[in-house]
């Protein structure tokens, strides 16, 4: 049994690492922020952590905190222009941000090792720590969404005018969501760096962006289960069906098209909604409210 | 020297114009970002390449590329967008859907080309240089400029002078209103996407000829540049896209010439960011980039 | 103490959308604002609720000047509103829709909300209790968990009302609240509005339905072409020839 589990350990690690970023992406989308820049913020955190540990010999825990801070601060800086934009414009701006980070990482060879990246990062992060991080992340997301913040996010996402009319400050809440997601992405970027010895700029480019988006779109953008289901299925699928591993991009592409057209809420969200519908429907006959003057 | 770079930039800008105008056509008509546009562009290059490789003349390659890309774009609209437009989440959905389409197309060409970089046979376009006023212009550059100008003029005539073009503009203004006067929006969308795709495909051929570096990832940077251009020109504005393309072409050529290499991309996108900050509507955009948003 | 629009005006470039609008909405009374289509009622509503910039004049809620206040501060000044086309949050349950109405009263720190600390959880529980009480009062307790998007029109209207009430406003702006309802339904709402006014809330009622407005309002303002053409008690206003002309083009209603 242990051997079976051990065999799957790298997969579990991958799942946990990607899950964190999936949640970071999920969080901003929940607040109605049309940001696709999560991997850019992860790159910021990853390089902050990597450089601090390799070049300055900082112990990993401190570097992790620094990564969270750097991700959050960059997100804060970005939120200023982003607050003035909506919808597609936000999306374009955040994609441009990814590109800028990518280019700067490749260019600043002295600091970041250029296109070759950073190597020799001591591997200080293993499965137990990742499991802990995963649990903490899920708890954090749960707490946020069940608090007044989560309620405000829901309102903003569905109708900004309504949210404003109820006294919700859209700018403050969206900035908060973005900064949180930046810090989260930063942490997980660093976790990834401390887990895999090396870092290259290209790993935080469009393929990763598409993967993260796929997890969230496929799994579900609203429910807490969404990222878990999406990440799990999309990471396991290429392992279970071997040929798919090579055609990963093709499969993701087709899945994206099919999901957004036919199951737009994502698998987890749709299933949860159906279950709720059935549960409520079972109650219905007992509460005939037709005569109540609709 | 500066003038030479500007000239080079204008030529490149002309090709960008084909790409950007196509992108903007779709956005203008449906308010959707087609992220598969880069893949359509790349398809043009590949189709032209394989046509020429099979022994056809370049002009045939050009036409084949335009048609193939146009048809591909139409298919993308039907598969990716048509269903989505009826839902309330079309903006986000379109980005995801077209991203997926782009990846599918990229994988296809990756497989066909076996991940090789393809180059047009050496004298597909004879290497001839003209000199005047101290500037050099190659035959290829002249071709690119001529093609870009011709295509844009034809399109402008089409959109502003023909009945069909009027219908496109009607549907752009209001789909429902145009249905009330008997226009079939779907036909218009098919046509619009075809034109948009054909433009992108033509641009792909020209870029393929100019840089002789046809590979399955060649569309990505252009998609990004396309973003920057249409932001500068204003989302939805075709004249804006034209102007912005020329400006962009010149800025890019100049920054490659005068800035340390590798910074060009960062510089361009930082500039785009600044524009988004200061004037999100760009040069001639008609959109409200920052209005309070609510579904329905 | 009242909601006062003082010499309010709005210009779009050279076009005058509103001019010299003076309206007083006292507490405890229902004040009506009527006018034919295109009269500029929506413009006034948008100016009051902070969605549209004001060109001239002021808007005050009691002592607070909200003329230039952004939309989210209007609620905190004590003015709630409903929307003409019902805007509930379709993805959330009925209870959640009302919960968000309590936002103005939620005080726990951001940190405790982030980490799910007891302070935040206690506050959420308290708000839930208040929301359930409201649901009880409106007779919709059994629908608490239903997705709001699947409710009937009448129910959605009531959810909107509850949400507006949740913020415990001093004034409520009702934007065509009975649009699309039959007489039975609108009579039920009329009773509700009367109760609200009697409890001390000042109501500004924007409506087309003249019968409804006559029944409920103590004072009516009539808007046409962006200007007030009449005001006063319902009977007086509705027999004013200028008003009749504006509404029905010169023929007796």
Q: Explain this structure to me?
A:
The complex is a heterotrimer of chains A (294), B (296) and C (253). With 294 residues, chain A is mainly alpha-helical. Chain A contains 15 helices and no strands. Chain A has a single domain (9-293), classed as ABC transporter involved in vitamin B12 uptake, BtuC, CATH 1.10.3470. Chain A has helices spanning 2-7, 9-30, 38-54, 60-83, 87-107, 109-112, 127-145, 148-158, 160-165, 170-195, 206-219, 225-240, 242-246, 248-262, 267-283. The longest helix of chain A is centred in the middle third of the chain and has 26 residues, at 170-195. The N and C termini of chain A lie far apart (59 Å). Residues 285-294 of chain A have low confidence and may be disordered. With 296 residues, chain B is mainly α. In chain B, strand 1 (129-132) and strand 2 (135-138) form a beta hairpin. In chain B, helix 1 crosses helix 9 and helix 2 (37-53) packs parallel to helix 4 (90-113). Chain B is globular. In chain B, 50% of the residues are buried. In chain C, 38% of the residues lie in helices and 24% in strands. Chain C has helices at 41-48, 71-76, 94-99, 110-115, 118-137, 153-166, 183-198, 210-216, 234-238, 241-248; strands spanning 2-12, 15-26, 30-34, 56-61, 64-65, 79-81, 171-175, 202-206, 219-224, 227-232. In chain C, the strands form two sheets. Chain C has a six-stranded mixed sheet. The longest helix of chain C is centred in the middle third of the chain and has 20 residues, at 118-137. The radius of gyration of chain C is 19 Å and the shape is globular. The two termini of chain C are 36 Å apart. Classes of the chains: A mainly alpha (294), B mainly alpha (296), C alpha/beta (253). At the A-C interface, helix 7, helix 8, helix 9, helix 10 and helix 15 of A face helix 2, helix 4, helix 5, helix 6 and helix 7 of C.
């Amino acid at each position: 049994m242990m051997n079976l589990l051990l065999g799957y350990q790298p997969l579990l690690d991958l799942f946990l690492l990607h899950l964190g970023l999936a949640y970071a992406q999920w969080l901003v989308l929940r607040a109605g922020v049309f940001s696709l820049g999560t991997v850019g913020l992860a790159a910021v955190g990853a390089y902050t952590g990597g450089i601090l540990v390799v070049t300055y010999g900082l112990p990993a825990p401190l570097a992790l905190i620094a990564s969270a801070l750097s991700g959050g601060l960059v997100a804060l800086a970005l939120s200023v222009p982003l607050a003035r934009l909506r919808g597609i414009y936000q999306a374009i701006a955040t994609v441009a941000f990814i590109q800028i980070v990518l280019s700067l990482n490749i260019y600043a060879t002295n600091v970041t090792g250029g296109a070759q990246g950073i190597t020799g990062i001591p591997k200080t992060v293993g499965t137990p720590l990742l499991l802990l991080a995963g649990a903490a992340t899920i708890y954090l997301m749960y707490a946020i969404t069940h608090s007044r913040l989560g309620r405000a996010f829901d309102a903003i996402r569905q109708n900004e005018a309504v949210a404003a009319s109820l006294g919700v400050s859209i700018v403050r809440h969206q900035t908060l969501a973005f900064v949180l997601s930046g810090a989260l992405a930063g942490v997980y970027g660093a976790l990834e760096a401390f887990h895999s010895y090396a870092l290259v700029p290209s790993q935080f480019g469009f393929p990763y962006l598409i993967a993260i988006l796929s997890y969230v779109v496929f799994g579900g953008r609203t429910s807490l289960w969404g990222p878990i289901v999406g990440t799990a299925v999309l990471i396991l699928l290429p392992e279970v069906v071997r040929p798919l591993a090579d055609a990963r991009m093709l499969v993701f592409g087709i899945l994206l098209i099919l999901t957004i057209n036919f199951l737009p809420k994502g698998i987890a969200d749709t299933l949860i909604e159906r279950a709720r519908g059935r549960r409520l429907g079972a109650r219905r006959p007992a509460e005939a409210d037709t005569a109540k003057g609709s | 020297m500066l003038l030479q770079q500007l000239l080079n930039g204008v030529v490149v800008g002309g090709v960008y114009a084909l790409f950007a105008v196509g992108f903007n056509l779709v956005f203008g008509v449906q308010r959707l970002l087609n992220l598969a546009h880069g893949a359509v562009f790349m398809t043009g290059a590949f189709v032209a390449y394989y046509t020429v490789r099979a022994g056809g003349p370049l002009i045939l390659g050009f036409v084949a590329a335009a048609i193939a890309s146009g048809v591909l774009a139409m298919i993308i609209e039907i598969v990716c967008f048509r269903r989505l437009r009826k839902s309330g989440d079309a903006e986000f959905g379109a980005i995801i859907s077209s991203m997926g389409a782009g990846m599918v197309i990229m994988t296809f060409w990756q497989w066909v080309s076996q991940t090789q970089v393809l180059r047009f046979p050496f004298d597909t376009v004879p290497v001839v240089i003209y000199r005047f006023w101290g500037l050099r212009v190659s035959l290829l550059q002249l071709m690119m400029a001529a093609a870009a100008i011709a295509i844009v003029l034809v399109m402008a005539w089409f959109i502003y002078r023909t009945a069909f073009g009027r219908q496109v503009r009607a549907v752009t203004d209001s789909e429902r209103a145009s249905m009330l006067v008997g226009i079939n929006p779907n036909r218009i969308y098919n046509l619009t996407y075809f034109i948009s795709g054909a433009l992108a495909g033509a641009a792909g051929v020209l870029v393929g000829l100019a840089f002789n570096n046809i590979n399955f990832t060649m569309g990505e940077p252009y998609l990004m540049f396309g973003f920057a251009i249409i932001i500068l020109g204003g989302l939805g504005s075709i004249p804006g896209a034209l102007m912005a393309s020329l400006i962009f072409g010149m800025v890019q050529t100049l920054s490659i010439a005068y800035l340390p290499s590798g910074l060009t991309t960062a510089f361009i996108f930082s500039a785009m960011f600044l524009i988004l900050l200061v004037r999100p509507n760009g040069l001639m955009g008609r959109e409200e980039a920052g209005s309070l948003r609510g579904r329905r | 103490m009242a909601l006062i629009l003082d010499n309010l005006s709005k210009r779009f470039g050279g076009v005058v959308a509103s001019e010299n609008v003076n309206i007083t909405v006292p507490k405890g009374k229902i004040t009506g604002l009527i006018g034919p289509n295109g009269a500029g009622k929506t413009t006034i509503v948008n100016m009051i609720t902070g969605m549209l910039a004001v060109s001239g004049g002021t808007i005050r809620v009691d002592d607070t000047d909200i003329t230039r206040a952004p939309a989210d501060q209007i609620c905190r000044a004590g003015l709630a509103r409903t929307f003409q086309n019902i805007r509930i949050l379709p993805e959330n349950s009925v209870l959640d829709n009302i919960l968000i109405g309590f936002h103005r009263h939620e005080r726990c720190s951001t940190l405790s909300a982030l980490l799910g600390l007891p302070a935040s959880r206690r506050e959420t529980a308290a708000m839930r209790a208040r929301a359930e009480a409201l649901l009880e009062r409106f007779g919709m307790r059994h629908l608490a968990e239903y997705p709001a998007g699947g409710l009937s029109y009448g129910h959605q209207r009531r959810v909107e009302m509850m949400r507006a009430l949740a913020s415990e406003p001093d004034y409520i702006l009702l934007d065509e609240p009975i649009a699309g309802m039959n007489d039975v339904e609108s009579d039920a709402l009329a009773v509700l509005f009367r109760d609200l006014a009697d409890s001390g809330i000042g109501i500004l009622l924007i409506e087309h339905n003249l019968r409804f407005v006559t029944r409920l309002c103590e004072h009516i303002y009539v808007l046409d072409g962006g200007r007030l053409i009449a005001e006063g008690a319902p009977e007086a206003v509705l027999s004013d020839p200028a008003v009749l002309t504006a509404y029905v083009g010169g023929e007796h209603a």
